[in-house]
Structure prediction request, 281 residues.
Amino acid sequence: MDGGSNILFQQNYPSGLGFWGINFGQSLSNVTPNILFGILLIMGVLMGGVTIVLYYHWLRYGFGEKMVIFAQVLYTIVLVLAFIVMISSAAHYA
Amino acid sequence: MHNLPLEPGEKVLVIYHKHWIVYFIDASILFVLLILPRLAYIWLINNNGMSFKINQDLTVFLYMAWFTLLWGYFFIVWTNIYLDAWIVTDKRIIDIEQVSLFHRSVSDFRIEKIQNITVKEQGLLANIFGYGSIKVETAGEQVDLSFNYLPHPYKVRDTISECHDKCMNHLGNSGISSPAHNIITEH
Prediction:
């Protein structure tokens, strides 16, 4: 009797995006520190390229304009801070 | 500034950039994309009963990676918009169009060739925030310049008209004969 009522009221939580059949939670728990360092490397290369292209345009076409200088400073500071946070969290995770 | 090859003695009178609403629209879209992972997480927990927990360091890392990508993309878009400019000098109007990061076109024509200036403020937002489009047509040539999302387009039209009048007076006082004057203005 008791066993039967337990089964009746047992809730079955799906562990991920049930209707898409993706076990999202398990996928994230399988992420190793090496994967994070790999992502960090790819991000570094990608954002380095973006930064070079942006600086090229700012220095060539907008050199000396206050708005462009402000954008340069803001972009660089926030980018460096974001990378510091990413490196720190990857190190903690490892 | 803008790496422009100006003629000797040519003075830049004013530089126009696009209205701030263009940046605001792009920033709003990127802001929605920024908070999208958080919204998706809340929605999945409330509607799908997801019970997994993500490591906090991993969450911070992934979110910062997402933020960094959007941050870079925002500045690419900002640069594309900001480097679009209309420069009015005492001799020419220069239209710089930054289509994409590696696609830039610069066109100009002389102020004395202006025949018609059309200003349009279309839509509720354009009337509230005071932006619009301006189109400058030339005499005798099929070259028209237009600029969208221009702040205070009527003031811009007045400035260009004033420059045009000064230029025409200067031509009129320079001793050029009437037929020659017409040739200059039409070609």
